[in-house]
Amino acid sequence: MSATGIGASVKRKEDFRFLTGRGNYTDDINQPNQTYAYILRSPHAHAKIKGIDTAAAKSASGVVAVFTGEDMQVGSIPCGWGVNNKDGSPMNEPFHPALAQGKVRHVGDQVAVVIAETYSQAKDAAELIEVDYEELPAVTNSEKAIAPGAPLVHDDAAPNNMCYDWELGDEAEVDAEFKNAAHVVSIDLTNNRLVPNAMEPRAAIGDYNKGTGEYTLYTTSQNPHVIRLLMGAFVLQLPEHKLRVVAPDVGGGFGSKIYHYAEEAIVTWAAGKVRRPIKWTAERSESFLSDAHGRDHISHADLALDKDGKFLGLKVYTKANMGAYLSTFSTCVPTYLYATLLAGVYTTPKIYVNVKAIFTNTVPVDAYRGAGRPEATYLLERLVTKAAKQLGMDQVAIRQKNFIPADAFPYQTPVALQYDSGNYEATLKKAMELSKWDEFPQRKAEAAKRGKLRGIGISTYLEACGIAPSAVVGSLGARAGLFESANVRVHPTGSVSIYTGSHSHGQGHETTFAQLVSETLGIPLENINIEHGDTNRIAFGMGTYGSRSLAVGGEAIMKALGKVVDKASKIAAHLMEASVEDVEFKDGKFTVAGTDKEVDFGTVALTAYVPHNYPHETLEPGLEENAFYDPMNFTYPGGCHICEVEIDPDTGTTQIVGMTAVDDVGRVINPMIVEGQIHGGLAQGIGQALLESCEYDDSGQLTSGSYMDYCMPRADNLPNFMATTESTLCAHNSLGVKGCGEVGAIGSPPAVINAVLDALHELGVEDISMPATPQKIWQAIQAASMPAAAE
Amino acid sequence: MPSVSMTVNGKQVSGTVEPRTLLVQFIRENLHLTGTHVGCDTSQCGACVVHVDGASVKSCAMLAIEADGSTVTTIEGLAGDGDVLHPMQEAFRDNHGLQCGFCTPGMVMSAIDLVNNNPAPSEHEIRDWLEGNICRCTGYHNIVKSITAGAAAMKGQKAAAE
Ligand code: FES
Ligand code: FES
To answer: Residue B24 to residues A18, A162, A340, A725, B48: CA-CA distances in angstroms?
Structure first.
C-alpha cells in the first residue's frame, strides 16, 4: 500500500480552505449589481388565496420587483419517479407550483417574492404585501388524511389524499405461510418525521446575461446537473446550453439538497425579468418550513415463524406521509428504497408489502440519510427482537438462525433484490467482541447497584446503495438514468485534473478520488485536482446521494483512468520502441519486460502534448479520457450495531454508554474518512432514536421549527463511538466498494430503541416510540407500574 | 446611519451600518470575511463564533455597533496569510474534525477560547463546552479528539515560546 493510495488514511486535501475560512459556499458568493430576494411564505397550513395586493410593497424603499404566482406561470416542479397503484394505474401527481396558484397547502408554502437592493429592504417590504386568505381545515397525519371526510390537499387531483396505493409480493401466498405458522408476532410502529438540518441553510443566486442569453444558477445542491435538467426542461423551459448550474462548496446535504426546490426556479426566472443577479439565502426558520423532511411512516407488520423461530413470512402495511407536494425522489423512498429491503439479512421466503403514499398539509417529505432503508431496518429489527422475547429465544440466536449464510451469495430475495456479497456472522461476531456482549450481565448488575437500568440492543442490518443500475430503476419507474460520468485530463507536465459528476458536501471526495488517481497513475496527491459541481465544466453528472459517489462515481473515474493508461502505454511503447503488449505500468513508470527500458508517466504526458516523436498514424495527440459508468447492481453494505444504555428510572434520562458499529462497506479507500462518515450517520441515527422529532399541531403549524424546540444532537448527548469495518468485497465493481455514507443512520436507531426496551423490560415496559425522550420513558415507567400499584 | 470602527484580524476597519446590523453581517457583508458562517436565526448553532477582545462570542447575537472600538479575530485571522495553521486548526485536520466545513470556523474559534481558559480540558468538559456549537456531520467524536489534541499542541507551543 502506498502512503497516498488505496487504503491509506490520507489527511484531507479540502481541509486547508475550510479551516482557514476560505471555503466558497453559495452565500459567500456575490455578483456585481446583485439584488436580494425574500420569499413571503404562507402562515396557514391550508387556505385559498382570494387576492394578493402587492402595491405597497412595490413602492417601498429599495424594492426592485415583486412577483406572485400570477406573474410566474411556469411548469410544475417535477417528481423524478413514477409509482403505479396496485391495479397498474399511475399515481396521482398534482401540479407543484413554484409560487402558489390560488391555494397554499402547508405552512411555509411560497406565496410571493420581493426583490430589493438589500435583504432587509426585501424583508421589510414583504410585510406590506396583503394576502387575502380563506382558511381551510388542514390535515397533517397520514392516517387521518385518508379517513372519510378529511380535508383534501389537492381537491380532485388526489381523491382521498391518495398519491398511490402500491404493493409488492403476493398477499395470498404470504397468507398461506401464516396458516402454517407456529407463532405470529405483530408490531405497530411510527417512524418519526425528521428535519435533515444540514448546517448550511439552502441558498440560491440567479443570474441572466443579456449578451449571451445564458442563465446561471448558483445553488446549494448535491447534484447540479439534475437541477439543470429538472428546472431547465420541466419548470422554466430553458435548454441545457443556455443554463449553467453551479454547486460550489456545500455545507452538508444528507439528502435535503438533492431536490429541485422552488426558490431555485424563482431566482433564475426572476433574474431574467429584472436583468440583475438575485441572491436568496434561507433563514434557519425557513429551512424548517421548506427543506424536504424525512421519514414519517406509520406501519403495521406481522411475522410468521415456525416452532423453532425460523421466519416463514412477513406482511407489512405502511402509510407514508408525502407532505403537500411530491418532492423530486419522494415517491421511490417508501417503495423501492423501503419495501425491497424488508428481507434484511434474513432468509424470510415470502414477503408482502403494501404502501399507501398520502398527501397532507405539511412540508414535502423526501429522502433523508438512508431514505427508506432506515425505516425498513427499524421495522425489521424491532420486530425480530420482539419475536425473540415473545418466543423466549435469545435475541442473537434468533438472528443467527435466520441469517443468509455467507456461502449463499449471490442471494435472490423475495422482494426483487439480488444481494451480491456479505457475511453477517462476521460483522455480528466482531461487534459482539468489541462491545463485550458476553460480559453485559455483570455490567447490568453493577449499574443496578447504582440505581440505573442498563440495557443492550442489537441490530443486524443491510442496505442497498450505490444507486443505481439505470435499466433496473427505469423498469421500476425512475424517470432518469443513475450512471455517473468522469473525465480525466492529464496536463502536459503530468499533473491531473479529474472532472466528476459526483458532488462532495462533506464526504471528502477531493481526497478519496485523488487516492484512486495516485494509486493508478503513481503520482503524488498534490499533482491531482478533483473538480466537481459545475455543469459548464463537468460533462454530466447524476450527483451524490444513496451512498453512490465511490461505487458509481469512483468507478467512472477508474474506467476513465483505465483508458488513460491504455493510451499512455501505447505512447510509451512508441518511445521505447517496444510492442505495447510488452509494456508494463507500475508506480508511475512504463517498462518493457526483460529490458532496462523505462519511461515515466510525466514524459509520456509531455509527449502526448508535444508530439514530435509520436505514432500519429494510430494515435491522436493529447491525453484526456471520458467515461460513463452504469452499475450492474446495487451494492449491499450491512453489518451489526450494538448499543448499550443506562436509564435513570427517576428522571427517564437515557445515557448511551456504548455504541459499537461494525460495518461491511466493501473495500475501504480511506479508513479515516470512512470512520468519520459512520460517526456522522450514528449521530443522526441516535438523534432520531432519542432526540429529534418534527411535530405539527392539528391546525398544521410546525411546533418544532427552530433549534429551541427541534432537538439537534449536541456533543454532550453523544458518546464516543466504536466504529470499524469488517468487509467483504462488492462482487460487481472493479474496486470492490459498497458505500458508507448512510450505514450509520440505517443500522443504529433500532439498536438504540432495543437497548432502551431491554433496560425497561424488567419494569414491564414493552414499547416506546422514537424519539425516546426522558418524558416518554418516565411516563412509560409510570404507566407500567400502575397495575402493580393497584393490586 | 451609525458608523463603527474596530480592529479585525489586526487591521483597523470602519463602515456605516444600520442600528440593527449584526456583527456577523458586518463581518461577512462589509468586510467580505466569509469564513464566519450563519447557521441559524436563534443564536444556537455557533457557526458564527468569533473572538471579541479575546473571548468567543456568537457574532449573530451581537450588534455591529456593540463591537465598536473592540478587537475582533475571525477564522481568517488565526493563521494569517501564511501556510502555517494555528495548532487548533492543525489538530482538526489531523483528527478529521471536519467534514462539510460549515460548522468548523465556529468550532475552532470556540475551542481556542475553551483552551485559553482551561488548558487541558477533559472529554466531558469539551462536550459540555460545545453545547452552543452544532455539527451535523461528524457526530462530534473527531471534534472532541481534535480539541484534545489541539489543547496539547497549544500547551506545547506556549511552553516552547516561554
Ligand atoms: S448563526 Fe450565530 S449561533 Fe447560529
Ligand atoms: S462539519 Fe459539517 S456541520 Fe460540522
So the answer is: 18, 46, 47, 41, 7
Average pLDDT over residues A576-590: 96
Helix (H, G, I), strand (E, B) or coil at A3: coil
CATH 3.30.365.10 fits domain A31-79+99-136+199-290: no
Closest-approach residue (CA) in chain B for A200? B39
State which residues form the domain around B16: 3-77
Task: Judge contact between A41 and A705, C-beta under 8 A.
Answer: no
Q: Is the pLDDT of residue A422 over 50?
A: yes
> DSSP per residue over A520-570, as a string?
HH---GGGEEEE-SBTTTSS----S-TT-IIIIIIHHHHHHHHHHHHHHHH
User: Which amino acid type is present at position B132?
Assistant: G
Please tell me the predicted confidence (pLDDT) of residue A790: 45
Bridge partner list, A698: none
User: Chain B: nearest CA to A421, how far in angstroms?
Assistant: 28
Q: What is the pTM of this model?
A: 0.97
Percentage of chain A with pLDDT > 70? 99
* Residue B134 near residue A199 (C-beta atoms within 8 A): yes
Name the residue of chain B whose CA is nearest to A199's CA: B39
CA distance A279 to A34: 7
Report the topology of domain A483-629: Aldehyde Oxidoreductase; domain 4 (3.30.365)
User: Model confidence over A717-750: pLDDT tens digits?
Assistant: 999 999 999 999 999 999 999 999 999 999 999 9
Q: Answer whether A23 touches B (CB < 8 Å).
A: yes
- Residue B100 shares a structural domain with residue B142: yes
DSSP A367-411: --TTTTHHHHHHHHHHHHHHHHHHHT--HHHHHHHHBPPGGG-SE
Q: Taking CB atoms and an 8 Å limit, are B102 and A201 in contact across chains?
A: no
Rounded to a whole number of angstroms, the distance between the first and last alpha carbons of chain A is 69
Closest chain A residue to B128, measured at CA: A716
Ligand 1 atom closest to B48 (CA): 2
A528-531 and A496-500 as β-strands: parallel, antiparallel, unpaired? Answer: parallel
DSSP string for residues in B33-58: -TTS----SSS-S-TTEEEETTEEEE
- Give the integer Cα–Cα distance in Å for A54 and A408: 67
Contacts of A706 in chain B (CB under 8 A): 40-42, 44
| B18-68 per-position pLDDT tens digit | 999 999 999 999 999 999 999 999 999 999 999 999 999 999 999 999 999
Residues of A numbered 261-320 whose beta carbons fall under 8 angstroms of chain B's beta carbons: which are they? 283-285
Does residue A791 have a pLDDT over 70?
no
Query: Which residues in chain A are contacts of B100 at CB distance < 8 A?
Result: 18, 198-200, 249-252, 505-506
CB neighbour list of residue A609: distance below 8 Å, 6 or more residues apart: A491, A492, A621, A622, A623
Mean predicted confidence (pLDDT) in A523-548: 95
pLDDT at B160: 86
C-alpha cell at A387: 419475536
Region of poorest pLDDT, from A465-474, A508-517, A654-663:
A465-474
CB contact under 8 A, B78 and A28: no
In angstroms, rounded to a whole number, what is the distance separating the alpha carbons of residues B57 and B14? Answer: 20
Mean pLDDT of chain A, nearest integer: 97
Is A199's Cβ below 8 Å from some Cβ in B? yes
Q: Which of A220, A275, A240 is nearest to A544 (CA)?
A: A220
Strands (DSSP E) along A94-202, which ranges?
A: 103-104, 110-116, 130-135, 162-168, 183-191
Amino acid A1: pLDDT: 63
What's the CATH number of domain A137-191+293-406, 3.90.550.10, 3.30.1300.10, 3.40.50.880, 3.30.365.10? 3.30.365.10
Q: Is the CB of A506 under 6 A from ligand 2?
A: yes
| Dist. CA A696–CA A705, nearest whole Å | 9
ipTM of the complex: 0.98
CB nearest B41 (choices: A16, A283, A682): A283
